[in-house]
Design a protein that fits this description.
This protein has eight helices and no strands. By secondary structure, it is mostly helical. Pfam families: HTH_3.
């Protein structure tokens, strides 16, 4: 059975890999393992050892603590509570479309990005 901490760490590995535009194969090569092992880490099927997490953090240029961000005891005990409370998926960044939107958003020049953000805020208020 998958432990919620292993699942969370795996999701954070996947999120960061997607954000930097790296494939599982590319990450595996940087870390010196097969891409199937990256797949198992990202799904929480296999636990990531401390030394391997260190190597992954270096390859993805983040501190090791990044993989534990957003995790607290209450979340581990009650997966899905955030979905019910906010109406949003518990792990919105697991959606490839959401990640593509974020990448595209940050590729827009800052002044235009601010205007787009304000437009999105107005449109979301109008829908509510």
């Amino acid at each position: 059975m998958k432990h919620p901490v292993d699942v969370h760490v795996g999701k954070r590995v996947r999120h960061r890999r997607w954000m930097v535009g790296m494939t599982q194969q590319q990450l595996a090569e940087k870390v010196g393992i097969k891409f199937q092992q990256i797949q198992k880490y990202e799904t929480g099927m296999n636990r990531v050892s401390a030394s391997r997490l260190w190597d992954i953090a270096e390859a993805l240029t983040v501190p090791v603590s990044y993989f534990f961000d957003g995790m607290d005891g209450a979340k581990v005990l009650s997966e899905g509570a955030a979905t019910e409370a906010s109406g949003l998926p518990d792990d919105i960044l697991a959606d490839k479309e959401a990640l593509e939107l974020i990448r595209s958003y940050y590729a827009i020049p800052e002044n235009q990005r601010r205007r787009l953000f304000e437009l999105a805020r107005v449109l979301s208020d109008a829908a509510a």
